[in-house]
Amino acid sequence: QVHLVESGGGLVQAGASLRLSCAASGRTFSSAAMAWFRHAPGKERDFVAAINWGGGAIYAADSVRGRFTISRDNVKNTVALQMNNLNSEDTAVYYCAGAGNWRRLGKSVNDYDYWGQGTQVTVSS
Hints:
By secondary structure, the protein is mostly beta strands.
């Protein structure tokens, strides 16, 4: 059974940084794209960032580009999201997602087959 477990969320002040981590078990994602999405109250689950299997291609949402960085470690089967200069609009539950092998790098929830339970990030202004 595949599990994605996020960690690193919390309550911070505006301007602070957080690093989210996602540990995968049950299968290797070394041949698959991985991504982060977020879900704020009253909104859809939104794309944040994605990285292809080798780390050579990265997408980031306009709202986080230049502040958030996605990275992965295929040996440890993990993906991380470094979030800098956080603001109140970044408050959401953040979800790690994994795709099936060799699927295209996508920005839609439909591009990913495996999901974590989420970790709450709250930014106070």
